[in-house]
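Reopening this one. Same input as before:
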Amino acid sequence: MLVIPIRTRTFVPPKDDIFPTLAKVAKKLKEKDILVITSKIVAIGEGKCIRVTTPEAKKELVKRESESATAFGGVKDVTFSIKGHTVIASGGIDDSNGNGYWILWPRDPMQSAKSIWKSLKKITGLKELGVLITDSYCTPMRSGTIGISIGFYGFHPVANHIGTKDIFGRKFTFSKSNVVDGIAAAAVTVMGETTERVPISIARGVPQLRFTDKDTRRELFIQPKKDIYYPLLKPFYEHKK
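Same output, byte for byte:
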């Protein structure tokens, strides 16, 4: 698997057209590639930016942008929230590299990924292609952030191993591989989190990948009570809008 970084110009909030850049990147794409793009520039492309004002205004914005939000924990000014089947800090609102604006999540990350996918398919004529939108994510009991998917289209996000056998012949009964978040983590490692100006990358030669033109989000999302983290996340579900 290879992750190819794509350095771009700076996209300027509150709104900037990202599609001319994507059209240029399209020339680099090959069959079975995944185009990975940060949620920040997708949001800027959609004009999902709000001028920074007061801490109180941000707290209200976090509530509005979250499906559920709880301000427990010991981290100052961070609210833990659920948004788009993802536990994310502060409703996905980002202050960094915003030039005086709060940058929100794209309007509908799954739909945004599909729109970009359709555009790139039309430009390239490729038969098998994926699009993945990423954000930064904090892993419990670990320092630092990694990349996570918040929107994707064009491929199956999970590889199912149930019913197959391990190297000693024992059948897997629960095992699945979260391919989409694995791609996101690898891509964001290459793209960076600060001043790199690499908001796009191409993931090539991804193993266990199957392409499709159908919406496959349901394959990734788990029912709350089947989630091993449900006991910890129960307060979110109880306060969900």
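So the earlier flakiness isn't reproducible anymore. For the record, The CA atoms of residues 53 and 101 lie 9 Å apart.
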